[in-house]
Write a structure and sequence with these properties.
Blueprint (H helix, E strand, L loop, with lengths): L17 E4 L2 E4 L10 H5 L9 E4 L4 E4 L2 H14 L4 H7 L2 H14 L5
Helix pairs in contact: 2-4
Length: 111
Amino acid sequence: MIFTPKGPDAVADEKPSLIYFNGEIVPWAEAQVHVWSETAIRASNVFEGIRAFWDCGASHWNLVALPQHLNRLMQSAVIMRSREDKARGICPVEGLIAGTRQTATMNADQF
């Protein structure tokens, strides 16, 4: 998950210091995928774009329709014939929601 910098002249190529990866928040540099993983050798992955708006008054990200986006993400994994029980067991939607919100909060001061 990458949060783009706030402001009209913000540049989107900055990276956060922390990222939600495999159910944990870790430093960006430590979030690595093994070269023999299915993602690397077969390009089997799914993605979902999630829009967030910076609230200057509250100093936090407003994540738009987060549960719906993450449910679609999990459904995409099922459609790709990724094992649903495995996908949900590794990171249930509730865990993704909590992790996304926590990551946004922890990186809020960076952008």
